[in-house]
């Protein structure tokens, strides 16, 4: 309670507890390929917030309405080790919302060329599972999760596969033996802008999140088009806020994209 | 959203159901449709039908969930198994969990929950027929149900969907447009207070397109707001 009150008072005075400016990220660390067992992965830190995303590829059956596209599934776990507020059990509404917003940013940007992930048309396609694990919750999970997922996809490789012969059961994915890079063509960056009073700020930490009136998450592409939006938080936004929030998000997305590019380039 | 397909969404400058780009479907609103509830409403946009019921403020059980300082709002959005083409498995899934949350956040700022410590207000939204834009239809019904229940409110919440189909910006997406269009956006607002309580979008738009979509959405929310007020007035004229 004390920390929240302090955070609120500071923000109203135009300051933040850790000395950042309102439009400044915490120190961001992106470590690609952190999980050797996964086909792609990344660890992301925003200050003390820490998240790992891993991508696994399995041979799957395409959905009936998209017989010639690979499958993308994004899942998020608010593991109980990450915060005293998280509990074991099936994902709660916050975890589901985070996964679905992250999913939309990735899916709607068409960053993965899913039509190139067909193994046998209408029968077998690659199913990409992006699993996002919270390791330490110190605020702004959505931006960190989305960054981890996008970075992980950018480092993902498609394994070789031995298809089952007539009469045989099961296809064999040759783990660790790769055929090609995952066909990834875009880099959506999700930026959440917090609002408290008349102040707008980026990358809110945990104490700041407690006092925010509302948030708007904006997924931005390289050409400054927007591919997903989600308003969050318990209070309203003024209609005039939207423009300012989008403008700020676009500026910060460009900055964050450079960090991802650098991290991805280091793996090639 | 966003599947490449051969489905034509615009024919001869009109939408598949004959509408202009900025035109809502036929809208029907009825208040007080569930007599056991404290408040209720049915809202229909074309073939999308949602029924909402509000219960409370009432004491919240189990007691450990009670908040000593404030009441809480609980919202459950649910789709009937027969509401869609392929039967939907009954019960909660990830989509309905998320929509229940954003619907709650869309309605909550309009209420004076702090006046009802330890209490809950429960809103149940049932989509009984789905043809696109179900969440906004449900929110429109829910706001009417809360008003019908006599829950004090800052303003009604009006919601609508807008989107981009074959490059054109349109209002009130039907199911086909929702499935095969490029972009959809749902917004909910308190039109009287000019405040935004829900905004979700997926699909690619430029900033200019977003501005135009947003304007289209707010204009239509204002229209829907007038319809909501009319529906409420008609109900109480009857009494």
Summarize this structure briefly.
Chain A is of the alpha+beta class.
Main structural class of chain B: alpha+beta
In percent, how helical is the residue content of chain B? 25-40%
For the sheet with most strands of chain A, the description reads: 6 strands, mixed
> What's the average pLDDT of chain B?
95
**What is the multimeric organization of the chains shown?**
heterodimer
Fraction of residues in H or I helices of chain A = 25-40%
Rg of chain A, please?
20 Å
* Average pLDDT of chain A: 95
Task: Spell out the key features of this protein.
heterodimer, A: 268 residues, alpha+beta, six-stranded mixed β-sheet, four-stranded antiparallel β-sheet, 5 helices, 13 strands, 27% helix, elongated, B: alpha+beta, 4 helices, 28% helix, globular
What does this structure look like?
The complex is a heterodimer of chains A (268) and B (239). Helices cover 27% and strands 34% of the residues of chain A. Chain A contains five helices and 13 strands. In chain A, strand 5 and strand 6 form a beta hairpin. In chain A, helix 2 packs across helix 3 (141-154). The N and C termini of chain A lie far apart (46 Å). Chain B is of the alpha+beta class. In chain B, helix 1 packs across helix 2 (134-148). In chain B, strands 3-4-5-7-6 form a five-stranded mixed β-sheet. In chain B, helix 1 (94-107) links the parallel strand 6 and strand 7. Helices cover 28% and strands 33% of the residues of chain B. Classes of the chains: A alpha+beta (268), B alpha+beta (239). Chain A binds chain B through residues 65-66, 93-94, 96-97, 99-100, 104, 107-110, 216, 221, 224-239, 241-243, 246, 250, and chain B through 1-3, 94-95, 97-98, 100-102, 105, 108-109, 183, 185, 189-190, 193-207, 210-211, 214, 218. Strand 13 (237-238) of chain A pairs antiparallel with strand 11 of chain B, so a sheet runs across the interface.
């Amino acid at each position: 309670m004390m920390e929240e009150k302090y955070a609120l008072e500071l923000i109203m005075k135009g300051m933040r507890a850790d000395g950042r400016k309102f439009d400044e990220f915490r120190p961001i660390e992106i470590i690609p390929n952190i999980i050797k067992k996964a086909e792609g992965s990344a660890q992301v830190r925003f200050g003390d917030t820490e998240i790992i995303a891993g991508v696994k590829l399995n041979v799957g059956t395409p959905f009936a309405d998209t017989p010639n596209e690979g499958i993308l599934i994004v899942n998020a776990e608010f593991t109980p080790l990450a915060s005293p507020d998280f509990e074991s059990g099936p994902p709660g509404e916050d975890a589901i919302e985070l996964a679905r917003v992250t999913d939309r940013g990735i899916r709607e940007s068409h960053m993965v060329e899913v039509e190139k992930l067909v193994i046998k048309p209408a029968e077998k396609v690659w199913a990409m599972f992006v699993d996002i694990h919270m390791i330490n919750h110190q605020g702004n999970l959505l931006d960190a999760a989305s960054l981890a997922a996008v970075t992980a996809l950018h480092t993902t490789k498609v394994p070789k596969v031995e298809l089952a012969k007539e009469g045989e059961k099961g296809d064999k994915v040759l783990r660790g033996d790769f055929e090609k890079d995952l066909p990834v063509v875009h880099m959506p960056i999700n930026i959440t802008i917090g609002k408290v009073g008349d102040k707008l700020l980026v990358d809110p930490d945990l104490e700041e999140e407690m006092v925010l009136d509302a948030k708007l998450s904006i997924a931005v592409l390289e050409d400054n088009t927007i591919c997903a939006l989600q308003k969050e938080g318990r209070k309203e936004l003024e209609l005039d806020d939207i423009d300012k929030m989008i403008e700020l998000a676009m500026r910060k997305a460009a900055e964050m994209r450079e960090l991802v590019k650098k991290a991805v380039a280091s793996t090639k | 959203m966003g599947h490449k397909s051969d489905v034509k969404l615009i024919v001869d400058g009109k939408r598949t159901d004959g509408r202009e780009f900025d035109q809502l479907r036929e809208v029907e609103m009825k208040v007080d449709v569930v007599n056991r509830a404290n408040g209720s409403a049915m809202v229909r946009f074309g073939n999308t039908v949602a029924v909402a019921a509000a219960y409370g403020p009432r004491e919240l059980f189990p007691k450990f969930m009670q908040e000593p300082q404030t009441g809480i709002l609980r919202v459950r959005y649910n789709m009937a198994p027969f509401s869609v083409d392929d039967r939907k498995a009954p019960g909660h899934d990830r989509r309905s969990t998320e929509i229940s949350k954003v619907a709650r956040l869309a309605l909550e700022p309009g209420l004076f929950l702090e006046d009802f410590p330890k209490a809950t207000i429960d809103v149940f939204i049932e989509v009984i027929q789905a043809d696109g834009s179900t969440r906004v239809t449900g929110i429109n019904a829910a706001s009417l149900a809360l008003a019908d229940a006599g829950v004090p409110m800052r303003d009604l919440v009006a919601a609508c969907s807008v989107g981009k189909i074959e490059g054109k910006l349109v209002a009130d997406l039907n199911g086909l447009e929702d499935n095969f269009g490029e972009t959809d956006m749902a917004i909910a607002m308190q039109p009287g207070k000019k405040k935004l309580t829900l905004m979700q979008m997926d699909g690619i738009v430029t900033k200019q397109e977003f501005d135009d979509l947003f304007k289209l959405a707010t204009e239509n929310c204002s229209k829907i707001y007038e319809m909501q007020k009319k529906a409420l007035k008609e109900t109480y004229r009857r009494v």
